[in-house]
Amino acid sequence: MELSNIEPQIIWKNFSKLNAVPRPSKKEEKVIAFIKGFGENLGLETTVDEVGNVIIKKPATAGMENRKSIVLQSHLDMVCQKNNDVNFDFETEGIKMEIDGDWVKAKGTTLGADNGLGVATIMSILESSDIPHPALEALFTIDEETGMTGALGLKPGQLTGQILLNLDTEEDDEIDIGCAGGVDVTITQTYATETSKGQIVRLEVKGLQGGHSGMDIHKGFGNANIILGRLLYSGLENQNIELISIDSGGLRNAIPREGAAVISVRNAQEFIEKATVLKKDILEEFATVEPGLQINIENSTSSDKVISEGDSKKVILTLKALHNGVYRMSPDVADLVEASNNVARVELKGGELKILNLTRSSVDSSKYSVAEQLKSVAELAGMNVEFSGSYPGWKPKPGSEIVQLMEKLYTEKFSEKPHVVACHAGLECGIIGANYPEMEMVSFGPTIRGAHSPDERANIPSAQKFWSFLKDILANIPQK
Asked: Fewest CB atoms within 10 Å of the CB: 9, 43, 319, 379?
């Protein structure tokens, strides 16, 4: 079956067009031009602001002029992850998609359904001629995945809508009314290098599930950086470890799936034997949740220089001590992670060390408590620490008019109540709401699995459900 034959055809048609356009975070020029052209070709008022957000306005349909105005919002960029054995350039190639039963997925890469399905849905509303709706402002933001600079650059007064519908939630039975804020914690140091005197060993971790570093952080998935740190730590006692390189993890908002380290040790055979014992323990620990986990520890060669044994110990101890995973569950909202940290990326090359963390919390003071703990550990090891990219959370308002309307419509339409939740992820609503405090906001969307990983897939029946629900919401928006 072709994507063009899936219902609702209008959404999958627009999603296919969108996915033909490269749209990595911070490199959205092509997709900005694509969406701008889309709006202009429809004859709609279309603007691009100074940071690159695209705003398209569509008047109310007949009889809907006295309803509250709506902002439909999704982000244009996508997480670009691929399997190591896949040759793909996200900056020049369109996503290659296929159908697998009830799911749409990509061939060895992220699909971009986060948040491309939201974008395609808004495109479908904009080009429709038979869907009743109030006055609309379509807001397509940039760079949600790597800094939220689009939402942060949105200025007061650019929008006039009274209700914002964010289409960036990944469970079709959920209505999100709150989210976590976040801050990047970057640890760096430069070390002198010298010629290795030992034997070379390469350690590799691969086959982990990965996933979203907020929505999946409580699921107990393995983190390649943490597992590498454990393996390296096992040889500290008597192996005179000197680090040559570490290349592990990737994007700040993705749980690391794979990584490798090259080291010099006093006795390679002894190190491998001891690390192999730990390897068996780790594989047993993760057997249920990470059945694809592979750990390789083997003799190797390298002509690159090492950092000293003392500096190597500081790096390894830091990796072992950094908090990773859930920090605190919310005492106020059932089953909600309040605060967490993802040790996202570890890179050591030519003596240059960089460790990237993404700390999240729905409570600002808790967010900085976690970040300061990471800072304390790193500074004890003589490293430099920088906080950047901080963004606020979104405080839930369960009694708002739009939330109550959506609960009522969902229950009537699907004969069950929706889950009204707050999520442990960075939605742009918190940032936008800081500039538009009177605007009611809610987030919902179709079911997506494996976001931020090459396993990402979108559920076809769920997209149909979501489309039907959205049209009902627009038709029933209350009067001003």
From this structure: 43
Query: pLDDT averaged over the chain?
Result: 96
Residues counted in the chain = 480
Query: Would you name the residues annotated as active-site residues?
Result: 77, 144
- Please tell me the distance from the alpha carbon of residue 23 to that of residue 115, in angstroms, as a whole number: 11
Task: Measure the CA–CA gap between 286 and 349, rounded to whole angstroms.
Answer: 29
User: pLDDT for 173-228, tens place per residue?
Assistant: 999 998 999 999 999 999 999 999 899 999 999 999 999 999 999 999 999 999 99
| CATH 3.30.70.360 domain range(s) in the chain | 183-391
> How does pLDDT run across 372-381, given as a tens digit for each residue?
999 999 999 9
Q: What percent of the chain has pLDDT over 70?
A: 100
Is the pLDDT at 114 greater than 70, yes or no? yes
Topology at the third CATH level for domain 3-180+393-475: Aminopeptidase (3.40.630)
Tell me, what's the pLDDT at 1?
A: 60
The answer for residues whose C-beta is within 8 angstroms of residue 388's C-beta and 6 or more apart is 183, 184, 186
Give alpha helix (H) positions in 189-253: 224-233
In angstroms, what is the C-alpha Rg of the chain? 24
DSSP, residue by residue, 341-409: EEEEEEEEETTEEEEEEEEEESSHHHHHHHHHHHHHHHHHTT-EEEEEEEE--B---TT-HHHHHHHHH
155: buried, middle or exposed (CB in 10 Å: 19+, 13-18, 0-12)?
A: exposed
Which of the 8 DSSP states describes residue 254? B
Q: Which residues contact 294 (CB under 8 A, 6 or more apart)?
A: 204, 205, 206, 207
Q: How far is CA 352 from CA 1, 187, 193, 232, in A?
A: 50, 11, 10, 18
Task: Tell me how crowded residue 399 is: count the other CB atoms within 10 A of its CB.
Answer: 8
CA atoms of 101 and 393, how far apart (whole Å): 37
Amino acid at 108: G
For the cut 90, the answer to whether the pLDDT of residue 334 exceeds it is no
Beta-carbon-side half-sphere exposure of residue 166 (alpha carbons within 13 Å) = 28
